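Run folding on both entries below.
>entry_1
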Amino acid sequence: MDFSVVGIAKASKVYNNQDRIAELNQKHPFKSVQGQEDRVNISQTARRLLLESQDASPSSPPPKTS
């Protein structure tokens, strides 16, 4: 397992920058554009594999876990 060693000054600077960004976001929330659409193209092979996987899955819902 690899570990990264970062100096206290650098870690503190990164934390302070993130804290400042969070503070600014609270004061001036970013307005996102509504109604945005993502378009995706599915190849014929992918579509066939999807349909095959749906046909192979059981029609009854999976058992509930508590």
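>entry_2
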Amino acid sequence: MADKIDPKRLSDLNDRLNAKKSVSKKETKHEDHYSGAQLGWRMVTELVVGMLMGLGIGYGLDHLFGTMPLFLIIFTILGFAAGVRTMMRSAEEAQTKDTIVDSDDLSIKNKDDNDD
């Protein structure tokens, strides 16, 4: 009995697997929308935090040394540069992650095409 393969059961199993795959694909598309929004807010937050940290350090040093606008301007610019650099790293990380996902999808499609 274990040696015989029932084509009807095999077909039912295949239908159930295809149904599960289609449901999971729909969910990932919905999730991608939120991933992009999260990435955008993360990048904005990184920029603002960098600028605020530079502003705070510059103000503190100006208050300590009595040179009011000098360190404030310098460290605000440095904080902006650090925020932009961090944003670029986040964008590169997201692009690398998208490239890996796209190549995985492509390899799955190619594998399915070769099975025919």
